[in-house]
Design a protein that fits this description.
The chain is mainly alpha-helical and 260 residues long. It contains ten helices and two strands; from the N terminus they run H-H-H-H-H-E-E-H-H-H-H-H. The protein is 62% helix and 3% strand. It has a two-stranded antiparallel sheet. Helix 2 packs across helix 8, helix 5 crosses helix 6 and helix 5 packs across helix 10.
Length: 260
């Protein structure tokens, strides 16, 4: 849900731009936020970007007046374009092919995972990820097959937003980025760093990156169809439900990195 189809801005630099804009928005919102007299002493001086307890306050969303219209626009785009394309992809594509496509995307992201595991001081996991990437890129034909799984080398997830959280950087304000979906100030910056670490960022032209990003987005949307449908049907406020689910998921991943 964090990659998609870009139009007029380079796919290489959009996440970096989004990260910078998000930090500026965070700073401005924090600077101009009203000082509530009911706040506890010292609360106004606290910076949510560095608060460990921020992720437990899933209703704290000072940028909500901006986030909600962007969220509505994303949902409109999803309803009339992304979801129909993902549905068609899911119907006409055999399950083994869809698994292979997801495996290829996971293999492309393996160097990013490995670097972040090294930064998180998780050497054993990083070595296993490196082994997976080497084996699946060769005997697995660029990740189409997953021979590493037969050796017990399971797929890992790690990103730079998680790495920042591992060392105490709080998530900052919740953000909804056009086309890219839910994020936070920390995760937007993390996404820019992760994109910088990806091999395809440097090896593929812009057209190839657009195609790759769009393919990943459609594959992920199809894979999460039922999950999103259940969340939508089971929530009174879909925006708040997505926000809470995202923040809780990110909180769990940061906690897992802190306590492996």
């Amino acid at each position: 849900m964090r990659e998609g189809v870009f139009s007029s801005v380079s796919a290489r630099w959009l996440p970096a731009l989004a990260g910078v804009l998000s930090l500026l928005a965070t700073a401005c919102a924090h600077e101009h936020a009203p000082r509530a007299d009911a706040e506890p002493a010292g609360a106004a001086a606290a910076d949510p970007f560095f608060e460990d307890d921020f992720t437990r306050q899933h209703d704290f969303d000072p940028l909500e007046p901006v986030n909600r219209p962007i969220f509505a626009g994303n949902m409109t785009l999803d309803r009339f374009f992304i979801d129909p394309v993902a549905h068609a992809y899911g119907v006409i594509t055999p399950a083994p092919v869809k698994r292979a496509v997801r495996s290829v995307f996971a293999n492309l992201n393996a160097p990013v995972v490995m670097v972040n595991e090294v930064l998180q001081l998780r050497g054993r996991r990083a070595a296993q990820t490196l082994g997976r990437f080497a084996l699946n890129s060769t005997l697995g034909f660029a990740g189409i097959f997953d021979p590493a799984a037969e050796l017990g080398w399971t797929e890992h997830r790690a990103d730079f937003g998680q790495t920042l959280g591992r060392f105490g950087v709080g998530p900052g304000f919740y953000l909804v980025i056009p086309l890219l979906g839910p994020s936070t100030a920390r995760d937007a910056v993390g996404a820019a760093v992760d994109l910088f670490l990806r091999l395809d960022t440097w090896l593929l032209p812009l057209q190839g990156q657009l195609f790759l990003g769009g393919g990943f987005g459609i594959s992920e949307r199809d894979n999460r169809r039922e999950e999103l449908r259940a969340l939508r049907e089971g929530s009174v406020d879909f925006y708040a439900a997505v926000r809470s689910a995202y923040l809780q998921t990110r909180e769990a991943r940061v906690r897992e990195a802190r306590n492996p």
